[in-house]
Amino acid sequence: MQIDKDVVTHLNRLLAFELTSIDQYMEHSRRYEDLGLNKLYERINHEVDDERGHADLLIRRILFLEGKPDMETRHELRLGKTVPQMIEGDLALERENAKTLREVISHCEKVKDFVTRDMLVGILKDTEEDHAYWLRKQLGLIEKLGLPLYLQSQL
Amino acid sequence: MYVCLCKGVSDHTIRQAVDDGLSSMRELRQQYGVASQCGCCKQCAKEVLADALQQKQRRFAQESLIDTDVCYA
Amino acid sequence: MLGNQQVLQQLNRVLTHKLTAINQYFLHARMYQNWGLQALNDRIYKASIHEMKYADDIIERILLLEGLPNLQELGKLLIGEAPAEMLALDAKLQRSDIDAIREAMAICEEQQDYVSRDMLNHILDGQEEHVDWLDTQLDLIEQMGVETYLQSKL
């Protein structure tokens, strides 16, 4: 079923974000584990699952709309070496993803693709309230506790 | 501490404003909206303002003392 | 009117203190949560709910005494900007609550309203416990430094 051909293009843009996030979070979570920061590893590894879930939704919807999911394209990776760099990189990616989501949601509204819109709002809610909010809290904690104590709490 | 919750103005903000030359409740209301909505913070704002002005004066007095010393030296 | 005018006035005064505390603790709790200090959120959220229960006891008592509970009046909220300041402001509020309850109890005793006095005593017990906890936290902050203290409250 086809509603509007631009929706598929937009969904593929979003898919690229999810795939980029999966790559980035995979790298970061393993790096946390390597540094011995198990709590951060667990949290970010779980985030990989979340992003994969989002990608799954997008791919299914693209196929349903008779489009071709673009599994190759990626956005720019923001890999960090230190913990604050990694958190900031993740936050930057989440923010850009959220911004794009809002654009696409408003496009879906315009072309009356309400089911896609509804699905994207669910993803946006995860992005805003779960991922980005958690990352922001961590940066706040690093500021309040100082880096060494923050890291100690993430062992 | 937040002095005025309606407008989100803290004691730090008021002290900074006093350092920058503010000196009355009227200015505080005009520039920051303190005590312009529910009025609950009026008393507290007055106290903070008075304290800030006093501290500023004391600092000023101290600084001018140092200056005199320097002049004589 | 069944109740003594002076007692009713005192009960309403304590009620104002409780209503203020409910709001102050609630906002502080959610500020802690917003910063990721979950343990502090949990503790202070509960304190807010306790205050609400005390307020309820007082409201019920005032109605029983055929008075009118004043839920309109609210004291100045002492909202801090950083965790240590917030705990200190909570302790300050709690202390003024305790003073108000003690005064009210003395008047209840004078007017021989022993049931109101007993209710207030029960509230006072809870308040003393909470202020003790707050003092302990402030002490810990002084001893270990605020950063280490906060680390234990994630």
From TrEMBL, chain A:
<feature type="binding site">
    <location>
        <position position="54"/>
    </location>
    <ligand>
        <name>Fe cation 1</name>
    </ligand>
</feature>
<dbReference type="GO" id="GO:0006826">
    <property type="term" value="P:iron ion transport"/>
</dbReference>
<keyword id="KW-0409">Iron storage</keyword>
<dbReference type="InterPro" id="IPR008331">
    <property type="entry name" value="Ferritin_DPS_dom"/>
</dbReference>
<feature type="binding site">
    <location>
        <position position="51"/>
    </location>
    <ligand>
        <name>Fe cation 1</name>
    </ligand>
</feature>
<dbReference type="GO" id="GO:0004322">
    <property type="term" value="F:ferroxidase activity"/>
</dbReference>
<dbReference type="GO" id="GO:0006879">
    <property type="term" value="P:intracellular iron ion homeostasis"/>
</dbReference>
<keyword id="KW-0408">Iron</keyword>
<keyword id="KW-0813">Transport</keyword>
<dbReference type="InterPro" id="IPR012347">
    <property type="entry name" value="Ferritin-like"/>
</dbReference>
<dbReference type="InterPro" id="IPR002024">
    <property type="entry name" value="Bacterioferritin"/>
</dbReference>
<keyword id="KW-0410">Iron transport</keyword>
<feature type="binding site">
    <location>
        <position position="128"/>
    </location>
    <ligand>
        <name>Fe cation 2</name>
    </ligand>
</feature>
<dbReference type="Pfam" id="PF00210">
    <property type="entry name" value="Ferritin"/>
</dbReference>
<keyword id="KW-0406">Ion transport</keyword>
Automatic annotation (TrEMBL), chain B:
<keyword id="KW-0249">Electron transport</keyword>
<protein>
    <recommendedName>
        <fullName>Bacterioferritin-associated ferredoxin</fullName>
    </recommendedName>
</protein>
<keyword id="KW-0479">Metal-binding</keyword>
<comment type="similarity">
    <text>Belongs to the Bfd family.</text>
</comment>
<dbReference type="InterPro" id="IPR007419">
    <property type="entry name" value="BFD-like_2Fe2S-bd_dom"/>
</dbReference>
<dbReference type="GO" id="GO:0046872">
    <property type="term" value="F:metal ion binding"/>
</dbReference>
<keyword id="KW-0813">Transport</keyword>
<dbReference type="InterPro" id="IPR052371">
    <property type="entry name" value="BFD-associated_ferredoxin"/>
</dbReference>
<dbReference type="Pfam" id="PF04324">
    <property type="entry name" value="Fer2_BFD"/>
</dbReference>
<keyword id="KW-0411">Iron-sulfur</keyword>
<keyword id="KW-0001">2Fe-2S</keyword>
<keyword id="KW-0408">Iron</keyword>
<feature type="domain" description="BFD-like [2Fe-2S]-binding">
    <location>
        <begin position="2"/>
        <end position="50"/>
    </location>
</feature>
<dbReference type="GO" id="GO:0051537">
    <property type="term" value="F:2 iron, 2 sulfur cluster binding"/>
</dbReference>
<dbReference type="InterPro" id="IPR041854">
    <property type="entry name" value="BFD-like_2Fe2S-bd_dom_sf"/>
</dbReference>
UniProtKB/TrEMBL annotation, chain C:
<feature type="binding site" description="axial binding residue">
    <location>
        <position position="52"/>
    </location>
    <ligand>
        <name>heme b</name>
    </ligand>
</feature>
<dbReference type="InterPro" id="IPR012347">
    <property type="entry name" value="Ferritin-like"/>
</dbReference>
<dbReference type="Pfam" id="PF00210">
    <property type="entry name" value="Ferritin"/>
</dbReference>
<dbReference type="GO" id="GO:0006826">
    <property type="term" value="P:iron ion transport"/>
</dbReference>
<dbReference type="InterPro" id="IPR002024">
    <property type="entry name" value="Bacterioferritin"/>
</dbReference>
<dbReference type="InterPro" id="IPR009040">
    <property type="entry name" value="Ferritin-like_diiron"/>
</dbReference>
<dbReference type="GO" id="GO:0020037">
    <property type="term" value="F:heme binding"/>
</dbReference>
<keyword id="KW-0409">Iron storage</keyword>
<protein>
    <recommendedName>
        <fullName>Bacterioferritin</fullName>
        <ecNumber>1.16.3.1</ecNumber>
    </recommendedName>
</protein>
<dbReference type="GO" id="GO:0008199">
    <property type="term" value="F:ferric iron binding"/>
</dbReference>
<feature type="binding site">
    <location>
        <position position="51"/>
    </location>
    <ligand>
        <name>Fe cation 1</name>
    </ligand>
</feature>
<feature type="binding site">
    <location>
        <position position="130"/>
    </location>
    <ligand>
        <name>Fe cation 2</name>
    </ligand>
</feature>
<dbReference type="InterPro" id="IPR009078">
    <property type="entry name" value="Ferritin-like_SF"/>
</dbReference>
<dbReference type="GO" id="GO:0140315">
    <property type="term" value="F:iron ion sequestering activity"/>
</dbReference>
<keyword id="KW-0479">Metal-binding</keyword>
